[in-house]
Amino acid sequence: MTRILTIGIAVLDDIYTLPMPITPGQKHRASGLVTTIGGTATNGAYAIARLGGRPSLLARFGEDAVGAQLRGMLEGYGIDTSLSLPMPGLATSRSTIVVEPNGDRSIFNRMDPDAPEDAPWLPRAVPEGFAGVLADVRWESAALRLFDSARASGQFAVLDGDRAPQEPRLVEAATHAIFSAQAIREMTGITHIGEAVAHYARGRTNFIAATDGEHGTYSHWEGRVTHHPAFAVKAVDTLGAGDTFHGAFAYALAEGMAIPVAIRFASAAAAIKVTRPGGPLGAPTKAEVLGFLAENG
Predict the structure, then answer these.
(1) Are 237 and 105 in contact (CB under 8 A)?
(2) What pLDDT is attached to residue 104?
């Protein structure tokens, strides 16, 4: 079974579903509430587990009730947390998420500002048996260390850049850096995603891409920019779609898929996810992705 190391933030999410759009300054009655796992790297790990992989998560958990509940849920979903020891005095991250009828979501997150950058249990190198690494930008020092290790060992190092990294070396250390549309626009000041990717990739040798929801993905590889169209689906809940894409992309690389095939596989996984409620828990199985691809050319 494919093993992938994921690094970043782990969050306990309270997801509220609204029957009508948000009106500022008004009280709203939710039609649904789900408490579940969350966080960029965590959602990616869940997507990997759903596809049949074996993800291990490196994240900063507190010794609090929220941390214990979150770890228990993660283990139940097939995400190994044994490499991450609870940190005394740390408050485990928690979010409130509001999903509107059109699938748009608003996220309110609290991450402990005193979370340490290092931990005595943090591996100095990627442990044996892992195909590669997937990391978000919430624990950059840990991601950088293990990206360097992965590259030195010939393994992939995928960066989930849902926002611009503070440590510029993180992008250089990644074998594949995939940003959100918002992040690539902020980093380049260019509105068109394809042009922004081309500009940002100038002078770089690693794979650079940006996802743009229903408008597809733009990638720069081997000297040219390619547009990969998204699948046309009716979105119900977009929460976790980008994270599902990154997890599926990392899984596809671990399975030996070529980049165009990996992007199409990841796009299909994200498309299926947005048609389902429940945030990241809508991530599909490998059989569902392959079936979707067969039906959609």
Answers:
(1) yes
(2) 82
10 Å Cβ neighbour count for 234? Answer: 7
**Distance from the first to the final alpha carbon of the chain:** 28
Please, where are the H alpha helices in the chain? 40-51, 65-76, 140-152, 169-173, 181-188, 193-201, 241-254, 259-274, 286-295
- Please answer whether residues 174 and 159 qualify as being in contact, where contact means their C-beta atoms are separated by less than 8 angstroms: yes
Instruction: Tally Cβ neighbours within 10 Å of residue 104.
Output: 14
Q: What residue segments make up the domains of the chain, in order of their start?
A: 3-20+31-292
| DSSP-assigned beta bridge partners for residue 219 | 209, 226
**What topology does CATH give the domain 3-20+31-292?**
UDP-N-acetylmuramoyl-L-alanine:D-glutamate ligase (3.40.1190)
Residues 98 and 66 sit within 8 Å (Cβ to Cβ): no
Of 217, 209, 195, whose CA–CA distance to 271 is shortest?
217
How many angstroms separate the CA atoms of 21 and 166, rounded? 33
7-46 per-position pLDDT tens digit: 999 999 998 999 999 999 999 999 999 899 999 999 999 9
Q: Which amino acid, one-letter code, is at 48?
A: I
Q: What is the pLDDT of residues 152-195, one digit of tens each?
A: 999 999 999 999 999 989 999 999 999 999 999 999 999 999 99
**Residue 7 pairs with which residues in a beta bridge?**
58, 135
Residue type, 8: G
112-134 as b/e: b if 16+ CB within 10 A: eeebeeebeebeeebeeebbbbb
Contact 164, 186 (CB under 8 A): yes
